[in-house]
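In pairs, describe these two lines:
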Amino acid sequence: MKNDKENKTLIEDAYRKIKQMIFQQKVIPGQRLVYSDLCKLFNMSRTPIINALTRLEQEGFLVSEAFRGFQVKPIDLQELWDLFGVREALESYAVEKAIERAEPKDIEILEEKLRNHQHYMPDSYTPKKFMVDAEFHIQIAAMTKNKALEKMLRTNLEHVNLRFRLDNCDSSRMPVAVEEHHELVERMKKKDVLKSVEIIRMHVRSGRDTCLNCLSMEEETIGL
């Protein structure tokens, strides 16, 4: 019989693997997760799988229905709007505090994240592109030395990155976003708080509009 520590490790492992599947869009919003398939895939019993799925439901990534089990929770226009509104508030505060508290090493890491984002330029949006973009923003939050802020921003970004389909996204936004990141870093290095906050606000709003347009096109297609 497994002890509590072993059970927790299995649940955490299942949780991480299911989340990775969703991120890689091996399971898409609205698609059902089948217990038996997950048990075979991860070589686990039902108990850690169900516990992991329940945790993901509690965090809002999945939804369950009687006799249908769990499925990836689709994101709608209102929730997307709300998530970006919260993100704008979090990142505006993060930029200000990062300028105030950042050490030289923090800026070096931020510039490395910027280079990663700039160098990875696929023809269309991919989960990896969303990931390298998110890492840049999370680094700014980490520079504030505020763990609660970093956690909130990470969760916010995960809800978009895991539950948002990329099918109709306009890839012309990618090089523009890189330029905005670059300008933001330069302003932060100069400790220009007002301009940095302005840049991040406009950056988040532009990303919001791109995602809203993408989701609107998807809903129209489904409606047809």
Summary: The mean pLDDT is 91. The first strand starts at residue 32 and ends at 33. The CA atoms of residues 186 and 196 lie 9 Å apart.
